[in-house]
Predict the 3D structure of the following.
Amino acid sequence: MTWLIMGGAGYIGAHVARALKGAGSEVVALDDLSTGYAERLPADIPLVEGSAHDSALLKRVFAEYGVSGVVHLAALKQVAESVAKPTRYYEENVGGLARLLEATGEAGITRFLFSSSAAVYGNPDVDLITEATACAPVNPYGETKLAGEWLVRAAGRAHGIATVCLRYFNVAGAGAPELADRGVFNIVPMVFDRLTRDEEPRIFGADYPTPDGTCVRDYIHVADLAEAHLAAARRLESDASGDLTVNIGRGEGVSVRELIAVIGEVTGERRAPVIEGRRLGDAPRAVASAERAAAELGWNARLGVREMVESAWRGWRLHQGA
């Protein structure tokens, strides 16, 4: 099979592209390079510059490379920005997806793997979030991901496309230093950035109903996430029918304070964090049930938080020139 990876030069996309290629699939990446980097991809993975909004380009790429499956990871993903610019998020995350699915159906492609998010759940008051937990997103980003799932399933039914939606929890780490997350939007690089600038890490709220008062999250190594995509792709290759929605997490909670402590151990910068006010919309706890991923995909996370932080730190130092 040949897989088209939308957003294939991005942080997650490059890991997924390499995992599929390493497992013997043919892979082509398409990316607008707004946040992606061409150098993340090896020479044997072709990179086409463009976006999901360009229907003519999609048609050409599908035909030229003989694409038989699509992995869609190209999306805007910053929660605060989505609140400030909701129309932009809907246009990119839902409008672009609609054009991609239309082109996919017209090309007769029958396998589609969609990058979703735990943001679809909002702030559920449960110990473990299962796929049956009610979806109630609390920001436009989460809304676009839930609407994207609806659209993927509807297009799948209309065009005979087998679909899988993977709901990621908190992604961290790097499969190789050159593939590390270069943005300063997620908690691990945010703490690295503060430490590099000789500043204390920040904790937003320390009065939550959790063991140490800080938010508890489920962190997943990006290399494990790439393996989850590989398992989902293999599922689609063997069963080109129906649809599946799966949480991708470790099923273990780590508090913000605990994570910052691990970062201090790894970096040698053990700075006491500054406590600031809560951020609007932060749930006290968001931890996945990973049972369906194991049962349906035969996948389980292998790497822990320390491996995530160590690998991310190597990448951070590489890109900071340290």
In short: The two ends are 40 Å apart (CA to CA). The chain has a mean pLDDT of 96. DSSP finds ten helices and 14 strands in the chain. Residues 173-217+251-320 form a domain with the UDP-galactose 4-epimerase; domain 1 fold (CATH 3.90.25.10).
